[in-house]
Predict the 3D structure of the following.
Amino acid sequence: MKNLIVMAVACMSTLSACTVDYAQSASELTARVGSTSYFKSNNYQVSRSAAAVSQSLRAGANKCLNQRTTGQIYGGSHMGAPILHNTVTDYTTTVRNNGRGGIEMAVRMTSRGFRISMDEPEGGEIIFTANVTPSGGGARVVDAWMDQNLFTPSDPIADGVRAWAEGTSSACPEMPR
Amino acid sequence: MAYKSVTALLLFLSLAACGDPLENQLYQNNGPTNLTVRQTAAEAGFMSLGATSIAVYQETAEDCVFDFVGTIKVKSGSQTAALPPGHRFALRLNFNDQDFLGSTTNGSQIVRLFTPRAGHQYDFQMAIQHRGLDYSLFDVTNGQRRLVNMPALLAVCH
């Protein structure tokens, strides 16, 4: 809920930034990195093989990144009283071979409720992607994400995926609610 | 086949209904206990507590058609349950934040399939952590501790 409030406040103050063209594929999301402050990216080396990293990301996606979140947010008002909205967000994730010895992961978010009012397409949008390729004796991971919380320096999904890639954790990141 | 897909989809879509009255029906089965569910951490966040539960759906005579049979609520410590071996279950794992009045505010739901084997004992660990959640099911029969794979509902019931 805190994320939604932050996003709502941010959108009200910078309305033009909310009329973004929502990404419908991993490549579209990656291409938007740097275009506005909403799209960010990491590029890091992992001292594990691309096959091992790919396997960890597949397992993590299977375990964690197909889920539903529910939340509540105040938005608008009726006779001076704030209206409480229920939000339901579904996350579905695809992992496929990228043809370069690794995998490409794409997380799609489909939400109902308050976020729809911000021009989100009916089929949702890709909010995170990660690409794994062999590099030296290890693997290189390049990710990209649509920032859900402007006031935190990192993204929970990106952090969680990095922990999977480095083999330090198999826990599930907190998905935006 | 299409109606099975619709059934699976409807189940998935209905699983996370806010304020679902089914949530209050506790899972009960007088058979031999074969499952222990533990909440190992509950750090939901500011002004809220973490609460985990498992809504249990048992497969009917029809493939990929499930009926709700009750909820295993896990508070502090652990909870035991008896899931009839050889039957397939859809387990909706609920990771919720509750306010100080006990009302559920935000939550995450993950649906997995599980078929307990006869004579086996299982240990299910669920945790709400800082910026995330975790869960693992172990087969702990005869002192072993082997991770059990639970496929996603929609990966099996297309």
Remarks:
- The interface with chain A takes residues 12, 15-16, 18, 45, 105-110, 127, 129, 131-135, 152, 154-155 of chain B (CB under 8 Å).
- Chain B has a mean pLDDT of 83.
